Amino acid sequence: MHQLGLLIIILGVLASPASAADSCKTAPAAQHTATGKHESPLACDRLALTAAERTRHFDELGPRLRQMRTGVRELANGYEFEFPSDAKTFALLAEWVEQERRCCPFFDIDMRLNREGGPLSLRLTGREGTKEFIQAEGAEWIRK
Amino acid sequence: MIRRVGLTVFIVVICMFAGGLGATDAGVAETAPGFVLKSQEGKTVRLSDYRGKVVLLNFWATWCGGCKVEMPWLVDLYRRHRAEGLEIIGVSMDDAGEDVIARFTKSKNVNYTIVKGNESVASAYGHVQMLPQTFLIGRDGTITGHITGVPNRRELGETIQQLLKSR
Q1: Among A108, B37, B132, B134, which one is least packed by beta carbons within 10 Å?
Q2: Can you give the pLDDT of all 167 residues of chain B as single tens digits?
């Protein structure tokens, strides 16, 4: 009898937060697809970069890379940018990409060095909404 | 017998603590945590002053791409529903100075209240690691919705309309 009472108390306590959570319709920070694959929200992680890294990423690397960009191509789910394939540009782009993937984990990022010394390309793609995200992030990036 | 009662009390206390953590799964309390912050114009903004209104509390930053996507939607929402009792408070989580924030909001024609956030208010709302992040607060001061990331514009508009109808 005592054990039954204990069980009821435990179940009651455990059940209460579920109802509280239901009344507060909180959207999960991360979503899962039908296949159970993790999907980050279309959001930026404000703690991913230090203040110095953020300055470097947004105020230095971004503007410099936009100036170096030699082409832009619109894709169905994002954009492809073309850069000269010299070592300096590659290093700058790699640094930007490493920071971007920490800040915006929802991006698919492809860096490609084309054969025969061809251009360096960067693809930023992702699920629905990603393209609009890039468009809003900076018209300078996609201006042809 | 005494040991058994002690064990029962111990288990119940542990369950209560576990329940508490579950209730604040996303770090969000049901009643919107109060705050006092300064607006761009230097006015003191207290959440409690908005009791009786529907409040859309939006955490954002000037460098945040998703925030730039939704900002025009918030401007439009505020323009259309302000008279019905909607208030929008944009809490900037920028490291940048107020002049940078002011220039940015001016360029986006922001028509709602902008305040400078801090870690204290972020912590009260579950640390707000991802931006944008939006909390919908009903007229009674309780949090009725929480969106991490760029919301679905249509759904957000419908939810706001429903909240505005409730008295």
Answers
A1: A108
A2: 455 545 444 443 333 333 332 223 444 448 999 999 999 999 999 999 999 999 999 999 999 999 999 999 999 999 999 999 999 999 999 988 899 999 999 999 999 999 999 999 999 999 999 999 999 999 999 999 999 999 999 999 999 999 999 87
Residues B33 and B121: their CA atoms lie apart, in Å, by: 8
Cβ-Cβ contacts under 8 Å for B17 (sequence gap 6 or more): none
The CB density around residue A5, as the number of other CB atoms within 10 Å, is: 10
Neighbours of B6 (CB within 10 A): 10
Separation between Cα atoms, residue B87 and residue B85, nearest integer Å: 7
- ipTM beyond 0.85? no
In degrees, to the nearest 5, what angle opens at C-alpha A66 toward C-alphas A60 and A70? 145
Count CB-CB contacts under 10 A for residue A64.
14
Q: Do B95 and A137 touch (CB under 8 A)?
A: no
Element (H, E) at B130: strand B130-131
Query: B67 catalytic, yes or no?
Result: yes
**8 A C-beta contact, residue A83 and residue A120:** yes
Half-sphere exposure of A80 (CA within 13 A, CB side): 12
Residues B148, B153, B157, CA angle at the centre, nearest 5°? 105
Task: Give backbone dihedrals phi and psi of B150, rounded to 5 degrees, phi first.
Answer: -75, 125
Q: Rounded to whole angstroms, how far apart are CA atoms A129 and A110? A: 18
3-state secondary structure of B147: strand
In the set B67, B93, B115, B137, the catalytic residue is: B67
Map tokens 């008295």 to a residue: B167
> Which helix (H) or strand (E) segment is A87 a member of?
helix A87-103
Query: Do the Cβ atoms of B150 and A2 come within 8 Å?
Result: no
